[in-house]
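Re-running the complex after MR caught last week's input typo. The corrected sequence lines follow. Everything else is unchanged.
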Amino acid sequence: VRIDQFVPSMVSHDAISNHVLQLQSALRAAGLESEVFAEAADRELRRRVHPFDGAARSVKREAVLYHASVSSSIVSWLKEIAQAGPIAASNYHNVTPARFFDAWSPRIADSLRRARTELESMSSVVSIGIADSPFNEGELRTLGYRRTNVCPLLIDLDAYERKPDARTSRRLQRARDRGGGRWLFVGRIAPNKCQHDVVAAFAVYRRVFDPSAHLTLLGPVTSLSYLRRLESLIDELGVGASVELAHGVPFSHLLAYYRCADVFVCLSEHEGFCVPILEAMQVGLPVVAYGAAAIPDTLGRAGVVLERKDPLSVAVEVHDLVADPPRNSAVVAAGRARASDFALPSTSEQFVSTLTRWAADAD
Amino acid sequence: MELDPATQQFVDLARESAADIGAAALAAGSPEAAIELAAALASVDADPPLSGARGGAASPKGLTKRATRWYLQYVADQVSAFNQAAVNGLRGLSGRTERLEHENAELRERVAELARRIEIIEGGRDER
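Corrected-run output:
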């Protein structure tokens, strides 16, 4: 069987794009043919991806796997060809609820609403919906998907054992040597990620527990208006000198940030999986996270899950963790053990066997 | 947890400021929320958010940013001034609309009261 993958966009170092390429390798290793087609791909990935153009649309296919996360013209094409024979599956990576963007980026909100409508309309076209997390599976079921399965994102966790960028490591280590706890959050600058709550909790933490503490917020900017508001909050709370916002960080630099942090704090209100939590656990960084959406699924019992995110209570939770070395070590060890549940060989095998069973059933 | 008054005041400020941002989604669609968002965005930043983490050799984006700053800042200043004027205008219109709505509500009440009186007077005539 040949299982081709279709994805709206392929971007280097992006979690979904990496997953698509890992899945392609796993399918090929299992003796199956698989090509990747995308509406857009950045320069680095163009060699590995076929454009989703007229030629791609006209080829007859056996099985198609669509990666759903944003609005795409691939959906209407899938609906057309589904009646002509090929079996189709959807790999759902989550669509952020539009309400988070209404106040900040109405155009993004419109696009997300379209994506959710498309996702719902696909329920009658695909014969299986494969979700990254139990949370995502729940959403698929609500939208009318009858056959669903959970297979985690394919992530090469060994890559996190590589050497970090030396210059960045030195710079961060020098800063660390000056003292103060180092908070880290990694994720797009977007309203649903709630970096404003992290900033508020951090400001309180500095005021109450650790005046030398430092916060780094890493991630590309999705909503510029939200970024501007975040910057004004940082100024308002007087923590500008101790907060670093970095938006275009290469992977080797990202590793340096993870290695030189003391705690990963996530107060996001909507995540379909939350790869950064897994990254933090893999590199041995304790995680304190608000238990929203898929975060409890990914974190398991390997971190501190918060039921509320009032700035003072978050600051207290972080302090209680970092000031208690035995407890901190236990959380780190639990995190590493949890990360090993997502080791690439086992997740790849799980995904490939799900797809082959699905293809066999469809025959 | 016991906090001194100054720290408690700071905690309250952090709590309220974060809550304001969180509440923006709930208020989306209201004219007041739209004006506040416009006010927050009125100032155009000529600095694109590039990585703040890279050391060493300047990136092409960084070089481009520095080379074009004299021009972009000139344009950004004018756009910011226009935006701020527009926001001031919107706030003025919003205030005027609010006053008109208030006056309108008062006038409606007065008209209703007058109508009631006329009804009584006319009713009295009928009775006679």
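None of the earlier attempt is carried over here. Residues 344-362 of chain A form the longest helix (19 residues). The mean pLDDT of chain A is 93.
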